[in-house]
Amino acid sequence: MAADLPNSVKQLSDSGAFSSLPLQLYASRDPTAPSDVDATLEPQIPTIDLSLLTGATPRERARMVQRLGRACQDWGFFMARTFRVVVNHGVPEGLRQAMLEAAKKFFDLEEEDKEELRGETVLDPIRYGTSFNPKAEVGVRYWRDFLKLAVHPDFHSPAKPLCFSDVLRDYATCTRRVGMELLKGIWESLDLEENDMNKALKLDSCFQVFVANLYPPCPQPELVFGLPPHSDLGLLTLLHQNGVDGLDVEHGGKWVHVKPLPGSFLVNAGDHMQIVTNGRYKSTLHRAMANGKSTRVSVLTVVGPSLDTVVEPVAALVSSERPAMYRGWSYRQFLECHQGNQLKEKAVLELLRCRDHEDVI
Ligand code: OGA
Ligand code: NI
């Protein structure tokens, strides 16, 4: 059956040949189920003003750090406003737009050009694909195409489209800087020493991945997921989209539709934040929904430790009352397991949980 399937949902959407498609293969939702979205939660999503973390008085910064800590503890995600940030600390709006446009142009390339980048293993530094991991997805696919690029410590970019690599280089640098500022504030909120954390996670050679997602219009969006509920694997993910909504985030057992504020990134804590903070800050489940009308593009920066770091709960957050909840694994091992299997909630993180902690989280 797989041989008859198109290589990408873009191709499928463009062709309009849905009748020849086993659309059930994409059907992973029950369209008759009652809505699990709580509309009252959306206005409560915490916002962090990056200009008050980087260019502010110590008092303003202390307040923002506290707010950041609360956002990480209570929600695991927040909106980070970067538009007022002083030069060299933010991400210029023009660059954010240029990145989205370059990503769209990439997906508009001929299918053969993209095919060359399909990659063999999940650690290939340039990887184009569809769904999450069709090799591991038995009988189900998700309605998205993706491009994943390792951009730090070594920078990788496709050669086409022509403008892509220059824009990506700047975008990767700027978003990494924002990620590092946020991490600095997060460590501070837990009374952890920045230098110790940089050393423990080898953040100078942090493994940074850039992801572009394309969600073309879907004929039956109520049946499919763009991406099913999952957590991201790194420390932090910074997401930006082309103005078409589709991201839902879980909070207190309910789902929240997220409409990013202008000039903001949606930031969520990843599994490695949960490991390193010994469960104080948790990674958030989120999902991407398809729609019937417009093409949605999202671009993500995932900031993580260096690939060879064995990540464990930091000693300062481990005590006899709160023993270490997770075993150490190298980031590379985690990444291989996360990307090489089906995408399923927090399945990989669960593998690392120490047995006697089943009730703590
Ligand atoms: C992801 C992801 C959400 C989105 O790529 O891990 O969660 O809105 N994407 O594209
Ligand atoms: Ni995600």
Automatic annotation (TrEMBL):
Q: Does the keyword Iron apply?
A: yes
In terms of domain of life, where is this protein from? Eukaryota
Q: What is this protein called?
A: Fe2OG dioxygenase domain-containing protein
Q: Which family does it belong to?
A: Belongs to the iron/ascorbate-dependent oxidoreductase family.
- For this protein, what is any one GO molecular function term? oxidoreductase activity
Q: Which organism is it from?
A: Zingiber officinale (Ginger)
Keyword Transmembrane helix applies = no
Q: Gene3D superfamilies, from UniProt? A: B-lactam Antibiotic, Isopenicillin N Synthase, Chain
Q: Which residues does the UniProt record annotate as the domain Fe2OG dioxygenase?
A: 202-305
Per UniProt, the keywords (alphabetical) are: Iron, Metal-binding, Oxidoreductase
